[in-house]
Amino acid sequence: MKTKRILAATAAAMLGAASLAGCGSGSNSATTGASTSAASGTTTTAAATTSGTTKAASSGSGSAALTFDWWGNQTRNDRTQKAIELYQQQNSGITIDGQFSQWADYWQKLATASAGGQLPDLMQMDYQYINQYTNGDLLLDLTPYIENGTLDTSKWNQDMIQAGTVDGKFVAACLGINTPALVYNKAVTDQAGVTIKDNMTIDEFIEVSKTITEKTGYKANLMYGSCHELFNYWLRSDGAILFQNDKIGATEEQLTKYFKVYEQGIDEGWLLDPGVFADISIGSVEQDPMVYGSSPETMSWEALCWSNQYTAFCNTAKEGQDLQMTTWPSPDPKKSDFLKPSQFLSIAKTTANPDEAVKFLNYFINSTDCNDILLGERGVPVNSDVADKVKGQLTENDQKIYDFVYNVVEPNSSVINPPYPDGFSEASKVLNNLQEELCYKQITSADAASQFVSQGSAALAAKAAG
């Protein structure tokens, strides 16, 4: 998939669409799973797009029970539940049990469900997992539903359909477009007297981090416990891919260079101590050290995340925090940066109600009523009519995400890497375990690199061998 082609087709149609709600001070809110019950309402006719609005289709049988699982944060949870409730009001007899998990918990739950043949009817899918679930023949091919008109893709960027197509089967409908983003607390950087610029190199990031820790006590966080995305990002500047089919696609020398960033950060004191993460949920926005904690020693001045998570960070921010956005640090940011499908919506091949599941998927992506609730929180909407409608509801702060994606990242980006191969999950666990040992000073960066090449390659090869 060509990143530039994605932008060219979507930018003109999405003029100003962004993916966040208001950014500013806020209080922490508890993250809980939830489910929705049936709501009565008037049954509508079959799905059709008129004047940019797609109406939800009614159940052909008059009743159906669906399950829908997603990962995310409290903002996403609240909006998704409201969108589900609206669909149920418009479709009497349809019930949708919505289940929400944090990132790490979500994939463990989905793996367990797939092993037991109990996948949810609808599930949020990520670019890095799409090959794994398609190769396992677990996802429904949506092509026939495009052909019979149940799923309307006429207003979608066609490259996004290609992004969700594996081995000729369209198995994942794109929910939006996003990019890597470093969200930082400008109140802290101002206190330290430093200015954060776009496209920082790693060396520049290290110098800024040292100054911030010295002046304020706040430290940096380099994706502790989930560093495979950052390593892959850094390696793009070397022309390398972290997970390359059945082996690690980077040399020990390249990996040692990046492991040394962690080693240096721990030795010099500007990187968060790993003990900070012992009692928090890694991957949870609400518990991220930038917005969670009671003292600078246990908090970070920044978070490496995805652009569409900016909304949740802003809504979770403490009083006095001023959250802004820039690019991830890299030896060569122009080589490292990219745009990607933020996430997909897929349907289990085992669903007992494929027609109704596709109708809901169609509503979720194409209905402007639905997206008046979602407001692009999962990324810039893929439907151009929806994007135009959402654009008109965004605040000045909301435009930051659009400006960042299209004015900062896109002009300095290159084509996204292919999806991760089967076995990347096992290999990434090896990487995260070695990161932890390194940060606890149990091994050196050279040891970590050597072990990752051997153990990570073994994990990928074992999966490739079946």
Structure overview:
The protein is of the alpha+beta class. The chain contains 18 helices and 16 strands. The strands form 6 sheets. It has a 5-stranded mixed sheet. Strands 13-10-14 form a 3-stranded antiparallel sheet. Strands 1-2 form a two-stranded antiparallel sheet. Helix 2 (74-90) runs antiparallel to helix 14.
Alpha-carbon distance between the two ends: 27 Å
> Cα-atom Rg, whole angstroms?
22 Å
Helix proportion of residues, in percent? 40-55%
Q: State which percent range the strand residues make up.
A: 5-15%
Query: What would the average pLDDT be, to the nearest integer?
Result: 85
In DSSP terms (H or I, runs of 4 or more residues), the helix count works out at: 18
Question: Tally of extended strands?
Answer: 16
- Tell me the major beta sheet: 5 strands, mixed
Summing up helix and strand content along with how strands pair, one would put the structural category as: alpha+beta
Spans where pLDDT lies below 50 across 5 or more residues: 1-61
Shape: globular
Question: What is the topology, as strand order, of the major beta sheet?
Answer: 4-3-5-16-8
